[in-house]
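tool_call: predict_structure(chain=1)
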Amino acid sequence: QVQLVESGGGLVQPGGSLKLSCVASGFSFSDIIMRWYRQAPGKEREYVAHINPFGGANYAESVRGRFTISRDNAKNTLYLEMNRLMPEDTAAYYCSVVILRPYWGQGTQVTVSS
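tool_result:
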């Protein structure tokens, strides 16, 4: 069974940094594209970034230059390093994989506030 478990969220001041992790199991992690999404209260789920099995990455314009997606295929783990965080980054962050249909973790909350 596909399982995705996010961690690393928390409260951070504007300008600060956090690194999120997503531990994956139940599928061949090293062979598949992984994605990060986020959802703020009252808003639709928003694409953040994705990474291919070899490390090639793409980012939403809203986070490009501030966030870095990476993966450790040996550990079946996806990461999202977030720098220069802003209040508008406040959201629940989810990792996702598509295997016939999208799978999502339970999310980890990131709150950027003074």
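agent: The chain has a mean pLDDT of 97. Proceeding to next step.
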